[in-house]
Automatic annotation (TrEMBL):
PROSITE patterns: CN_HYDROLASE. Residues 4-273 form the CN hydrolase domain. Transmembrane segments: none annotated. This is Predicted amidohydrolase. InterPro entries: Aliph_Amidase/BUP, C-N_Hydrolase, C-N_Hydrolase_sf. One of its GO terms (molecular function) is hydrolase activity, acting on carbon-nitrogen (but not peptide) bonds, in linear amides. Keywords: Hydrolase.
């Protein structure tokens, strides 16, 4: 069982012109603030080394390879890893990954207090579309630039707690949380870049988007009796607005810390993994109550089929 201070490092906007070094310097400043406040594990957003480039169309996708990291850590991120080790702090962050054999993933890693990557996750649920779509108010081309992740939702016991990751759109799918819950997860980390407007519906704006995000995350926390850190990259990137709304959530589904800006902002809360045990051994004692004989469709069918 672990009692500690959990931190969420919301990032403000990153413009196309911003260098990796400038972004890492901002991440390090947030880490120093976190260390001063006693944080032992810090959660950064999805794709937090670059602008959210899937909003831009490139005819030849290799034009965007410069947004991808070919190794981790690398020259730009090593200072962050070094600082974390000095502070004795674990952390997680997201980035675009280009593997040695040419695969492109939307990836996040958990780094332990000794500075070692102990878990890699590649985003499963890629939203958006693969081709330029003139009908949309803006493009969301994750299906063009990334392949669906090949890792699945794994967990790791690191620095005394069971941790797992999801990335952005994954948080809207209960399957994500349940697969992690079935592995005894005690902290789910989620980074996101969520445009404040639905590109296909004018009436789904900021208020509804913030609500849906919080609804998904708090439900996932409660139904699996786990802490969740759901952390945004926020603000206006080259004219395109991303919502903020970063939150830390306890195993009862209550929000225990909330960002109030769309800038680089640290949020913190105390967590005690012992608090996960009650839900996991009572209402959500999976071994006692789940009825898997009735859940087959979840793993055998993707689309919904209504009766004639
Ligand atoms: N980066 C994302 O996965 N964004 C999606 C948007 C497109 C809805 C999200 O679920 O927040």
């Amino acid at each position: 069982m672990v009692k500690m201070v959990l931190g969420g490092a919301q990032m403000g906007p990153i413009q196309k012109a911003d260098s990796r070094e400038a972004v890492v310097a901002r991440m390090m400043e947030l880490m120093r603030q976190a260390h001063a406040q006693g944080v032992e594990f810090l959660v950064y957003p999805e794709l937090c080394l670059t602008t959210f480039f899937p909003r831009w169309y490139a005819e030849d996708i290799s034009e965007f390879d410069h947004y991808f990291e070919t190794e981790m850590p690398n020259a730009a991120t090593q200072p962050l890893f070094d600082l974390a080790r000095e502070c004795g702090m674990g952390f997680t962050f997201g980035y675009a990954e280009l593997t040695p054999d040419g695969h492109h993933y939307n990836t996040s890693v958990i780094v332990d207090r000794a500075g070692e990557i102990v878990l890699t996750y590649r985003k499963t649920h890629l939203p958006g579309h693969a081709e330029y779509d003139p009908e949309r108010t803006h493009q969301h081309l994750e299906k063009r630039y990334f392949e669906p992740g090949d890792t699945g939702f794994g967990v790791v016991r690191s620095d005394g707690m069971v941790m797992g990751m999801a990335i952005c759109n994954d948080r809207r799918w209960p399957e994500t949380f349940r697969v992690l819950g079935l592995q005894g997860v005690e902290l789910v980390t989620i980074g996101y870049n969520t445009p404040s407007q639905n590109s296909q519906s004018g009436d789904e704006g900021l208020e509804k988007r913030l609500y849906h995000s919080e609804l998904s995350v708090t439900a996932g926390a409660y139904q699996n009796s786990t802490y969740v850190a759901s952390i945004a990259k926020a603000g206006t990137e080259d004219g395109h607005h991303l919502m903020g709304g970063s939150i830390l959530v306890d195993p009862d589904g209550f929000v225990i810390a909330r960002a109030t800006t769309e800038e680089d902002e640290l949020i913190t809360a105390e967590m005690d993994t012992e608090r996960c045990a009650f839900g996991k051994s009572t209402v959500f004692n999976f071994a006692a109550h789940r009825r898997i004989e009735h859940y087959g469709l979840i793993a055998s069918q993707t689309g919904a089929k209504a009766p004639e």
